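[agent] plan:
  1. take the single chain provided in the ticket
  2. run structure prediction with default settings
  3. attach structure tokens to the ticket
  4. add a short note for the reviewer (M.T.)
[agent] executing step 1
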Amino acid sequence: MKTSMAALAIALVGGATAWAQTHQPYAGLQARPVKALSDQQIADLKAGRGMGLALAAELNGYPGPMHVLELAAPLALSEDQRVKVAALFDAMKQEAVALGERLIASETALDRQFADKTITSSGLAEATRDIASLQGELRLAHLKYHLATLDLLTPEQATRYSTLRGYGDGQHTPGHHR
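[agent] step 2 finished; step 3 output follows
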């Protein structure tokens, strides 16, 4: 009898835990300063990090400037290439940081309208269009610098980059478009 009661108690606790995990996936997130963004996302946006926004380029043979700089020695970048890629990286970071700050501000404003119970249908439409536009601009900012970086590399360097990044054994054909 004690065994069956213990088993029942365990089943009830386990079932309650499973129910809570299934039906309360956002529990605890209500304390976030900006509900739609994690602390990590905010940090990434403020730092201008890519957050996977340029995967369409990266995984199709269009190297990113940051990673090219990280691999400058094994890619045998010339000093001229290194300077030009560094300038691309700096420009990308400056653009991405500015857009990230604007995106955080827009998400904060939307969050505030909901928190203050001042949101309207027209305000919601405007805010979400603004956020979507900023997300697109941010992605463009990362992708266009991948495109520009490829133009600075030789086909051999681009192929070596793909190999070094683990995208194949040198058979990956970068998207050179010169």
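[agent] step 4 note for reviewer: The mean pLDDT is 89.
[agent] ticket updated
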